[in-house]
Design brief:
The protein has 109 residues and is mainly alpha-helical. The protein contains 6 helices and no strands. Helix 2 packs antiparallel against helix 3, helix 4 packs parallel to helix 6 and helix 5 packs antiparallel against helix 6.
C-alpha cells in the first residue's frame, strides 16, 4: 500500500540542505531569503548573521539584511550592515554591488 507523499516546503528543503552543508553560502543565503519572505525575521536575521560571519565576502547578504533591518525600523543596525557591505564590496572589487549598497545607505539618510 502506498502512503501519500507529503511535499516539503521550500524552507524545509533549504533547512535540510543547510544542515547537510552548513558552509554553503548560497544555501544559507537562500534560507535567509526564504525566512524573510515568509515573515520569520528572527530566523532570517540568524541566517544572515551566520552567512556574513562565515562568508564576509558574500555582499548580497549585506544588502538584503540591511534592507530587512530598515523595514523593521532598525535604522542604526541597517546603516551599520550596509556600511559593512560597502566596505566589503569595495574590498572585493564588486563595483555594481557597492553602488547598490551605497544607494540603500544613502536612502536611510
Amino acid at each position: 500500500m502506498n502512503t501519500p507523499q507529503v511535499s516539503k516546503s521550500r524552507r524545509q528543503m533549504l533547512e535540510e540542505f543547510v544542515a547537510r552543508n552548513p558552509a554553503d553560502a548560497f544555501g544559507r543565503y537562500g534560507l535567509a531569503m526564504e525566512c524573510m519572505k515568509t515573515g520569520d525575521n528572527s530566523a532570517a536575521e540568524e541566517n544572515f548573521k551566520k552567512l556574513i560571519a562565515g562568508h564576509s565576502d558574500y555582499v548580497a547578504a549585506y544588502f538584503q539584511y540591511g534592507q530587512m533591518l530598515a523595514k523593521m525600523g532598525r535604522i542604526d543596525d541597517a546603516r551599520k550592515t550596509l556600511t559593512q557591505g560597502v566596505s566589503q564590496a569595495t574590498e572585493t572589487g564588486e563595483e555594481h554591488a557597492r553602488s547598490e549598497l551605497q544607494a540603500a545607505l544613502d536612502e536611510l539618510g
